[in-house]
User: What shape does this take?
Amino acid sequence: MNIVVLAAGQGKRMYSALPKVLHLLAGKPLVSHVLETARQLQPEKLVMVYGHGGEQVRSALAGDDLHWALQSEQLGTGHALAQALPALSDAAQTLVLYGDVPLISEASLRRLLQAGQEGLAILTVELADPAGYGRIVRDPTGRVACIVEEKDAGSDEKAIREVNTGIMVLPTARLREWLAALKNDNAQGEYYLTDLVALAVAAGVPVHTAAAATEWEVLGVNNKLQLAQLERQYQSMLAERLLLAGVRLADPARIDVRGSLTHGRDVFIDVGCVFEGEVELGDGVEIGPYCVLRNVRLAAGCRVAAYCHFDGATVGAESILGPYARLRPGAELGPEVHVGNFVEVKKSTIGAQSKANHLAYIGDAEIGQRVNIGAGTITCNYDGVNKHKTIIEDDAFIGSDSQLVAPVTVGRGATLGAGTTLTKNAPAEALTVSRAKQLSLSNWERPKPKQK
Ligand code: UD1
Ligand code: CA
Assistant: This one.
């Protein structure tokens, strides 16, 4: 089959510089959801009709399998499909999808294709409030006669609740002739794709309908209210899936997954968490409230307290993180590591059982096992031009408020006294202190206020 995705419209009602089909749903452009579903059907030809935001749309959507058809003026959905004609193979049926109807399911499309094996088939849905949609008009025997657009409909037709979702499958060989016959003498002065239905009926081509599996999967996005509503719909569907797969969610209405979230058994996620990109949570992982995890792997048994922000990090089993911890790209933590409040780790490895429990910056560092990093420790990794590495070997103890001016190495089992500014390597097993000696002056007197 051929698939044509119509995505040339401007989306005026989005009030945005971004073309409508590039607005994000669950972290992904609307039209990418459509393309993903389209590819599951393994079409022979996959054609995108684009227009508004031309290059922006093209460069945002990768894929060698995509054919591009430019519709430089938006003269209607029929005119849009006509632009795709040269790319279609005549021998196969053509399925028309909309770039702004992102949640259409593979199951509904397969049902539609089944119905449209011969002739033409329309995916329809019964709506309590059909306003705005094209209505499916049937003859007295129940056969489809035509589709009437809302703006061209009389009051009888407006009362019809079965509507056109816009998604149809058509006999490609007939399209050239039918599309050439379309007229734009209607309320909107557009070439309507929907008028092909009456042409098919007149030509004696059978017209079938298939019902969409759910109402929300055929909902389009025309403004940001609808976008937000679909986002909630999609998120609640994902939350339901997680719950049924055994994840415990404190509140299924307060989780957002913008990418893929894979998980083991007995995972718990508290309220307000956002998952982006690819996130993997091992068995028994617990995530506290209001955490943001992006491209993160947490091994089994990790516990993350509230308000953590992790991006591009991996964490070994049974580690304890947060509250208020930040892991940045390249943070690789071993098992049973503790990273506490206001600790930032970037492009660093931290070995098993090491701890940085309070207020520290660890950047471009290699930290061994069982290392203790005191509060206020900073790796001074940046000289204004270059980044340098800090190495801290196993069992070292870094006293509070130390600065490690990289490149520098702290040897195995070394101790740094509190407040050390380390500019040379600290030898193994020894105590290194750089602070000035402590003095006490017994003959010193505190200034006194003047007597009045
Ligand atoms: C269309 C259908 C209507 C259906 C509704 C479902 C027609 C005439 N009407 O109406 O029966 O109930 O969808 O949502 O088909 N587009 C182009 N080029 C154009 C015009 C539109 O690519 O010149 C694309 C848009 O980007 C969009 C899709 O086609 O993805 C639908 O266009 P839109 O203007 O939203 O159609 P509706 O008026 O909603
Ligand atoms: Ca629309």
Remarks:
- The chain has two domains: 2-218, 224-432.
- The chain has eight helices and 35 strands.
- The CA atoms of residues 174 and 249 lie 52 Å apart.
- The first strand starts at residue 2 and ends at 7.
